[in-house]
Amino acid sequence: MDSPATRLIDLAIRVQEAGGGPSLDDEIRRYNRMIRSSWRADWNCPPFTAAALLDFIGFALSSPGFLASRPKAFDEKLSRAADGMDPVEYVHMLAGMVRILDREPPAPYDELPMSRWELSATFPHLDGFTAEMMDGGHDSFTDAVAGYVTNEHPYCTDVAVPLTTEAQRALVLFPDERSLGRYVSWISRGRLHELLETVNDHMQREHS
Predict the structure, then answer these.
(1) Residue pair 189/177 in contact by the 8 Å Cβ criterion
(2) CA distances from 139 to 79, 132, 136, 185 (A)
(3) Which H or E run includes 24?
(4) Does the pLDDT value for residue 162 go beyond 80?
(5) What is the three-class DSSP state of 188?
(6) Separation of alpha carbons 15 and 203, rounded Å
(7) What is the pLDDT at residue 81?
(8) Whether the Cβ atoms of residue 51 and residue 115 lie closer than 8 Å to each other
(9) Is 166 helix (H, G, I), strand (E, B) or coil?
């Protein structure tokens, strides 16, 4: 059973097992912020719909015989998240938290820093480029970007378009160096500009 509701349950498990890490409130705020900041995600399943899915799970669990064939792994996951609380009560509580926190304005990134999971979901292509940077087989950052894009040539638009879109978005969302560098070590405003210039140069030479 994979859905926005189970993503929220996974976040609850992460909080329960982190031992003094992020609070559940903050993780739900991050989830809501991530969904609300993406037109596509918000169109498909806004936070209040995810909350309704959680409530549906609660009603289903409390109805004898309903969803009786659900995977055992789901019950185990829900039990981990509830941490001793009645699972039905827990999913309804979680749904209520999502609704209440969704009524608040999205938390600014300097107030509630982006978490590692939020980064991976918000900037998957920039995050994926990290492996290219760690490879160490490039003479310069520009060479790393060029290699990353041209390896897919002539279908490099599949890589170039989302990569440059995320780079532009990162420059807008994080206007200072500190807020960028806390998430991915190789990222700086200068390198994001260099990435954009390198990809644009390739697209102009090879695809215009």
Answers:
(1) yes
(2) 50, 12, 8, 18
(3) helix 24-36
(4) yes
(5) coil
(6) 43
(7) 93
(8) no
(9) helix
* 208 band by pLDDT with thresholds 50, 70 and 90: confident
pLDDT at 79: 92
SS (H, E, C) 116-157: HHHHHHHCHHHHHHHHHHHHCCCCCHHHHHHHHHHCCCCCCH
Residue tagged 């990435």 (tokens): 195
Alpha-carbon distance of 143 to 137, in angstroms, equals 9
Instruction: Decide: 44 and 4 in contact? Cβ < 8 Å.
Output: no
Please tell me the pTM assigned to this model.
Answer: 0.86
Per the structure block, which two tokens stand in for 148? 């990353």
2: exposed, middle or buried (Cβ count in 10 Å: 0-12, 13-18, 19+): exposed
Which residue in this structure is represented by tokens 């993780």?
A: 27
Residue 63 gets which letter from DSSP? S
The predicted-structure confidence for 19-45, as pLDDT tens digits, reads as follows 777 899 999 999 999 999 999 999 999
CA dist., res. 117 & res. 155, Å (int): 28
With tokens 């600014």, the residue in question is 108
